[in-house]
């Protein structure tokens, strides 16, 4: 399974990439909506991990575009802001499958990614121990 991580903090991007790779995802990281759009035009990803605010704006429109362009893909939005405090993200970003708040516990990230992969009917390949 492939995951695209859109996060402009290189430390978080690296940590999330390592976590998801340990879970069995092949991960690609970008830091802007422009780069994410270019990647999504070239390839299909099973999971999109989108930080709400990145260097060139917010990812709400990107999440809507992904939901239309790649139906069935799971979108996990991450935010450190107070936006969507009442769980109202589905009214603004209807394609988002799950919302996590920073700081993220990496075990929560792994669990949600595995859940979303299972919900889509796709298996996450486990690396041999």
TrEMBL record:
Modified residues (4-aspartylphosphate): 51
Residue ranges of every copy of the Response regulatory domain listed in the record: 2-117
Cited InterPro entries: Bact_response_regulator (IPR050595), CheY-like_superfamily (IPR011006), Sig_transdc_resp-reg_receiver (IPR001789)
DNA damage found in the keyword field: no
Annotated signal peptide: none
Record's keyword terms, sorted: Phosphoprotein
PROSITE patterns: RESPONSE_REGULATORY
Example GO BP: phosphorelay signal transduction system
Protein name: Response regulator receiver domain-containing protein
Organism field: Poseidonocella pacifica
